[in-house]
Amino acid sequence: MMRLSQKILVVYSFCLLIFVTGCFKGSGGFGRGNASPFADADAAVDKNAENLMSLSIGMTKGQVSNLAGVANYLEGYDWGSVWFYKIRKGGNEGTLSDKDVEKKYMPVVFDNTDRVMGYGSKFYDQTLSDLGTGQF
Predict the structure, then answer these.
(1) Which of 23, 49, 92, 108 has the largest count of CB atoms under 10 Å?
(2) Which class for 128: exposed (0-12), middle (13-18), buried (19 or more C-beta within 10 A)?
(3) Top-level CATH class of 38-131?
(4) 124 CB contacts (<8 Å, ≥6 apart)?
(5) Predicted local confidence at residue 51, as pLDDT
(6) Per-residue model confidence as pLDDT tens digits over 38-96
């Protein structure tokens, strides 16, 4: 017959095993091979695209942040900055300089007063052409 302390230890160990197994299952741990740690990022893509439909010229960085959240990556220039939001699924592998990966993000271009000047790849490319790429 088991003593009370042994029973408590068995129950505690069982609960710990269930907890740890649940954590790994939900986080891409054991059993998922080489799953990307960013695999769940695709779930936010549809929400990003929907939120960014409400962008308008003149919005502040705070307003954009409230609207669409934290950008996936940023660039800084002498004339302002650019926030990039993921709007197409996939492209979690590779470098940001890879054009296929780059097409999955929408740039939001801010001037040096932190207001939206414009957005979209064509506007971003034209702004770089007009104002230069002098990064700080």
Answers:
(1) 108
(2) middle
(3) alpha beta
(4) 82, 107, 109, 118
(5) 83
(6) 555 566 777 877 888 889 999 999 999 999 988 988 999 999 999 999 888 765 555 55
Query: Residue 92, class by beta-carbon neighbours within 10 Å (0-12 exposed, 13-18 middle, 19+ buried)?
Result: middle
- Cβ(41)–Cβ(92) below 8 Å: yes
Strands 116-119 and 105-111, sheet pairing = antiparallel
Q: Structural domain boundaries of the chain?
A: 1-35, 38-131
DSSP 17-73: HHHHHHHHHHHT-TTSTT--TTGGGGGGHHHHHHHHTT--TT-BHHHHHHHH-S-SE
pTM above 0.85, yes or no: no
